[in-house]
Amino acid sequence: MSTSPELLASPAASETPVARPGKWKESLPGLARHGFLIVFTGLTLWPVMWVLKMAFEPGQDFAFSISPIPSTISFENFARLIGKTDNAGNWVFARQALNSFVIALSSSLLGILFAATAAYAFSRFKFPGRRAGLLAFLATQMFPGTMMMIPLYLLLNYLGLLDTRLGLVLVYSTTSVPFSVWMLKGYFDTIPKELEEAALIDGASQTRIFWQIVLPLSAPAIAVTFLFSFMSAWNEYILAAKFMDSELHYTLPVVVNSAIDAKSVRWGDFAAGAVFVSAPIVALFLALQRYIVGGLTAGGVKG
Amino acid sequence: MLRTLMKQLVCAAALLLAASAFAVEAERVDPVEAERTVPAAVEAEKAGPVDVVLWHSYTGAEQQVFEGAIQAFNAARDDIEVTALFIPYTAFADKLTAAIGAGKGPDLFVFAHDRLGDWANWGFVEPVQHFLSTADVERFSQPAIEALTVPQGSRMLYGLPLAMKSVALVYDAAKIPVPPATLDELVTEARELTGDGSYGFVMDWANTYTEAGFLHAFGGIVLDEKGRPALDKRGNAEALFWVRKLRDEGLLPREVTGAMVSSLFNDRKAAMIVTGPWFLGDIKGDIDARVAPLPAGPAGIARPYLSVEAVIMSSRSRRKAEAFEVMRYLTSDEVAVSRLEKAGQPVANKQPWKSVEDQRLQGFRAQAELAVPMPSAPAMRHVWTPMDAAIMKAIGQGEEAESVLAEAQRRVSASVQASERTEPIEVQAKGAEKALEQARWQVANPDQLITDSRWEAMVLTFKQGESRLLGEWCAEKRRGFANAVACPVPKALADLADLATAKEGEPALIWNAEKTEVVIAARATDGRVTMVKGGAPVQKNRTWQLVLGALLALLALLAFIYRKQLRPHLGAYAYVFPAMGAVIVLVFVPFGYGLSLSFYDVTPTREAFVGLTNFVDILLARGAGDPHSFYYTTVVTVVWTAANVFLHVAIGLFLALILQDPKLRFKKVYRVLLIIPWAIPNYITALIWKAMFNAEYGLINRVFSLGSFSWFDSPLTAFCANLATNVWLGFPFMMVTALGALQSIPKELYEAADVDGAGRWTKFINVTLPLLKPAMIPAIILGVIWTFNLSFNVIYLVSGGAPDGATDILVTQAFRYAFEQYRYGYAAAYATIIFGILMAYTMITNRITKATEGAFE
Amino acid sequence: MAQVVLDKLVKRYGDAPPTVKEVSLTVNDGEFLVLVGPSGCGKSTTLRMIAGLEEITAGELRIGERRVNEVHPKDRDIAMVFQSYALYPHMTVRENMAFGLKMRGMPKSEIDVRVDEAAKMLDLEHLLDRKPKAMSGGQRQRVAMGRAIVRRAPVFLFDEPLSNLDAKLRVQMRAEIARLHQKLKMTVVYVTHDQTEAMTLADRIAVMHAGILQQLATPLELYEKPANRFVAGFIGSPSMNFCEAAAGKDGVLAFGVRLPLPERLGSFSGSCVAGVRPEHFVEEPAEGRVAVPVVVELVEPLGSETYLTCTCTDEKATRIIARVGPRCPVKDGDKFTLYVDPKRLYLFAPGDNGPAL
Fold first, then answer.
1. Are the C-beta atoms of residues B774 and B744 closer than 8 Å to each other?
2. Average pLDDT for consecutive 10-residue bins of chain A (303 residues)?
3. Which of B427, B828, C300, C337 could form a disulfide with C307 if both were Cys (CB 3.0 to 4.6 A apart)?
4. B138-154 core/surface letters (b: 16 or more CB in 10 A; e: else)
């Protein structure tokens, strides 16, 4: 695939305008397509609507009726979730939401910083150990997570980082680095070397080239990588539950899971919690969706 | 240029150093050592209140009452301050084991008694009988105290009971005026009331816990008095057969869950159910529900399992006396009264019941008094899954009960045996010598205590001839000992008979079962017997540190040798350093540690080097006696991965092809809606889908009119349920990748194909597919790895591996070994093999496709 | 002083045979030197070595009397225009042009002065705030040049800058580059594969082939006195007609006729390669011209002239192209007679690239 500036400059280059003046009737195959899409989308979203329904219906039972529309709308589940305060009067929910947010944000930013520099090196420089390094990063994807839980616990304990936000941030950012390196490297590979050569002749140092030329041009890929890192940190449950020792340090997924008892699930609380945990990610997805399409490909295409 | 690079390196290094220095927030002090250095530290000497940490997983009304009681305590006393921490039930046991194993954790925790056997064995929990008087103990119901006594019949009491729960018969008095006293009566009543979607009698027949009462009613038993498995006892088969007949006759629903039992009762569709006190809060107000003991069977009354919830003390606590105060308070009669009245907790105290008039509560209590404590022996851990499986087969699938139980018995026995492997630790010999030395010295100097950080030295001196049990001596003497930490005395010393053989002046060595503790008894000439109890130093796994150190040294050496060639690349290394450094510390090091564990046989307190035994066990399909060997599970995993990736790609590609047509309206809307599944955390998704596939009230069955088809009965359908869930989760990723890839195919190629006369299908095969490859192949490879490793949540939560582990994949199996059977070494070996498989896979596909060659260029 | 001296420059990648083999030439101060040759001849590599984008394997490079082999590109006092323009897509035209100056710490006021000046020179004033993606190829080209101009570097390097433009634009831009050179009088090293560009723009041309410098001379010299067969065939469009020939006392036998040998080669005999340019096969007979009978195969009228593709009467039926007048009355398949002046005959040693005799 050519790397001409045209293709680079617009991440969603083939977003051709949809509406054509005067085209009212869709051809029959078109209608069939819409029909299929509507049905499929409905099916896909059905479980989601269900969760919403259980969140808005009062009570803790698993909703029985098939319809995804709640029979009565009540905010009591949400209110109970949000209003939780502990004995000392701390607004627990706010602290937990804040924890989630701070941890997810810090770990994705840190992860991107680490990954971008490494990906740039892998993309642009040839140095001994390059292949080994790439392979090593890929290998980390293959470590079964279960094996890591206890060693990580012990390691964080040793470093004195248990029950701290910093501990979780470090763990999350490190686990997101390999995948981010993979994606960003792919994207960096598609930036033409000539741009950097011109900058070299212009007198820019390597660092400047990285920060002022390569990074701004990689905005789509960085957006997508950020999204993935944020999402996995935000959703992570088991490590957060294990490493944190006080309720004020918990994150939102821990709250959601507290609705699961030994015998049963309190569906109202669970659904409300699920809504809180999922909504920001969905919103982020919506905001960054055009980058998702562009950014992923650029990471994958080796043209 | 070089100078700037050096500057960058230095800055990066400095930053990292600063960060790590900053990060150290707590002193790293071995708690056991801390105690050693401060004699008489048991009574707190710090100014201010002592902080006692308590962990629980109470929710709802129980939580309110509990925490309210704690608040009252804190308000009333200014010398002790209790900090309560709620931990979700799903993470409780793991977190506890990890924390206590690492020397941290709470002072007290609230949990069911069933793991006490293990915990006592590992030395995690503290016996409290020496804090109590006889009157104290009598406050509680006998079965509750029995449940907390480990081993059975001894004097070691590990906690104070809060509540005792067992299932009982809950019936709708409107339909059943008099509860049945025998099983035959039960069946008769049930027959009358069953029909038209209503049942006379409903119980969750699919799990061992509920079934236990009936097993006992037929004379069956799960563990014998010695704590060995006895699944093949005659009565068990008869009981299972009886339940199966009920189900076959339609008197019991085809598939049940606990939630369903409750809702049927509330919907007035079940006249009698078997359930526990947790249901009381959920009974619909207008139903006249009453509680009676389970009916008697041919071999006697039905004794269901008693589950006792207790406040238990961690052996690592540094404030045991204070913790006990809290324990005593929480189980006091006053607090029990409010727990009973306000939260409906069936408390284990006797006193509060005297004023209770609620029939239901009394009904449960009556049953509890007749119940049998659920065995907490370590063997019990191995029983649940095989027994559940046997029940499912015998009742759900109509297989012959006896053979199924015999098979289960075999499995459990093998599993128990495997986990009890007790190879002598090599250090035994050394440890024994040291112990002897200590003993001799101690005997000569009884008033001076040996302090050694690895030995819990404790001296007991008593007169020979006094036949009190050692435990009591332990208690008495303990109060005077400044640094007595833990007092579990090995069972072998429970009576003095062993000591009688100790010759004068000659120490006798007595080891505990795990070979982690030795007691040396030495008898002095005046008849006094002095004992020194010590722990054999736990052989810590140091291999990984050695290997790591060696690797680092090697790297450093190489870097030094090649420093001239490496110098021009310093810039590149500076760029890679932060990421690589972080990954090495936080990913490779733990991985290396985990990897090294696979050469050991590991329990929470002991590590024994076993070389390649774990691997051999796995690969020769031995070990743990599960019917689904490594190879079966591998096949399942491969099929699972292939099916998933195929469906993800097919569906994703199909949708992408439809959506990429620029003429399609609302394209963006569809696209956005279709990626929503991706945004939802997968454990939430898994639980929702699990509920949707439920046989009785699940959406799937109702929408597709499948009646009460139970998805999780057969491997194939359970597999499909898992598959549906994971495909729902995974197709958006492939769809988005395909969309992007499709957009980058130049239009001219399609136009050229048009001119050549190609039809849509030909164009697809000859233009689209080949040009998609470069983008899709890396995505597919990644998808394979992710599905292999990360679909853990889906399988674990949706089918739970049902039936009987048939839908487990490699990662869930590894998890079970680690966290359900606490065989970390075995699980580590498993995980290592998984890793090896994936690595091999990547290498091979790399060679074949060469598509990711570009990624490595 | 902005003289560029290449002294036996060699470029080798790993163990492969060298891409550039001991190229030596001197570009005088203010001279417009064109490096020309077919794809893969090493001209771009040589240019990149001058720029500092490729490491020099052996030999010395001097810019303005200073040895610059190890000097960083930004310190070599050069400016470069790339084939694909290499404009920073996320910056405006103004920012693109200002970037290099910013890197050198020039104050903003000075930068603005230079940018405006260059914009005026290149007719870019109305485009200063646009981004590259909103501009046509020609405009982008000019921005690339503008970026080089503002640096006021004594040496300009051009790497096939016109290859991405259509024919008409190419002609236009060629003229602009020439005008620019006249005005600014910088030393230029210009790489192209198009010999027309080379001929029209260059003060001197360096013809390269397979990594070796074939001939370094003015355009006219290259045309009239090619050093070897390759240069002869490369310069001139359509290219020179070649024919295997045998020389003897009576002259040389080529193109099916006997032609008298040029005087300086009087005593030469043996096999060789004869060459005559298409424009020297003419329709009109004249004193001294030798008649060459041919059969016309293809007639291509161009308006101002006509190209005839013909076959000669020799055994091999050598094909030749002749440039004749616009109204030549021939059709395909006609027998025709062309005339050639023996003074226009070139002889080369046999073999692929025999030197001129």
1. no
2. 36 39 47 84 86 81 69 80 71 86 94 93 86 84 80 84 89 89 85 88 87 88 88 88 85 84 77 88 83 55 28
3. C300
4. ebbbebbbbbbbbbeeb
- In the prediction, which pLDDT does B710 show? 73
Residue A117 to residue B580, Cβ atoms within 8 A: no
The structural domains of chain A, ordered by start, are: 27-74 (no CATH), 91-300 (1.10.3720.10)
The interface pTM score, or ipTM, of the predicted complex is 0.81
What dotted CATH number matches C4-234? 3.40.50.300
- Measuring CA to CA, which residue among B692, B696, B691 is closest to residue B263? B696
Phi, psi of C10 (to 5 degrees): -125, 140
Minimal Cα distance from A238: which residue of B?
A: B91
CATH no., domain B168-303+382-419 = 3.40.190.10
CB contact under 8 A, A18 and B85: no
Please tell us whether the domain made up of C241-348 is placed in CATH 3.20.20.70.
no
Are C253 and C272 in contact by the 8 Å Cβ rule? The answer is no
Q: Which of B94, B687, B824 sits opposite A242 (nearest CB)?
A: B94
pLDDT tens-place string over residues B41-97 = 333 344 578 889 999 988 878 888 998 999 999 998 888 889 988 888 888 888 888
Please provide residue B576's backbone torsions phi and psi, each rounded to the nearest 5 degrees. Answer: -85, -25
Q: Would C4-234 and C241-348 be classified into the same CATH topology?
A: no
Q: Report d(CA C175, CA C177) in Å as an integer.
A: 5
Instruction: State the DSSP code for A60.
Output: S
State the burial class of residue C29 (Cβ atoms within 10 Å of its Cβ: 0-12, 13-18, 19+).
Answer: middle
Which two structure tokens, joined as six digits, stand for A217?
């041009």
Contact A5 C51 (CB under 8 A): no
| Distance from C-alpha of A210 to C-alpha of A196, rounded to nearest angstrom | 9
CB B223 within 8 A of CB B229: yes
Alpha helices by DSSP H, listed for chain C, are 43-51, 93-103, 108-121, 137-149, 167-184, 195-201, 219-224, 229-234
Rounded to whole angstroms, what are the CA distances from C249 to B152, C292, C340, C345? 127, 20, 20, 16
- The topology under which CATH files domain B630-809 is MetI-like fold (1.10.3720)
N-terminal to C-terminal alpha carbon distance within chain B: 25
Q: Do A171 and B586 count as a contact with CB atoms less than 8 A apart? A: yes
Is C74 an interface residue toward A (CB < 8 Å)? yes
Crossing angle of the two packed helices A267-300 and A165-189, in degrees rounded to 10: 30
Say whether C84 and A200 touch across the interface (CB within 8 A). Answer: no
Residue from A142, A234, A264 whose CB has the most chain B CBs within 10 Å, to mutate: A142
**For residue A154, what is the nearest residue in chain B, using CA coordinates?**
B102
- Tens digits of residue pLDDT in C278-290: 999 888 888 888 8
* All structural domains of chain B with their residue ranges: 47-164+309-355, 168-303+382-419, 427-535, 630-809
Q: Which CATH number fits domain B47-164+309-355: 3.40.5.60, 3.40.190.10, 2.60.40.10, 3.40.50.720?
A: 3.40.190.10
Angle, helices B824-849 vs B810-819, to 10°: value is 160
The pLDDT tens digits for B388-403 are 888 888 887 888 888 8
A198/C78 touch (CB, cutoff 8 Å), yes or no: no
The domain ranges of chain C are 4-234, 241-348
Distance between CA atoms of residues C76 and C47, nearest Å: 13
CA distance B555 to B580: 14
The runs of H, that is alpha helices, within B228-279 are 234-248, 258-266
Spatial contact of A301 and B775, defined as CB atoms under 8 Å apart: yes
Q: Strands C241-248, C270-276: parallel, antiparallel or unpaired by DSSP? A: antiparallel
With beta carbons under 8 A apart, name residues in chain A contacting C72.
200
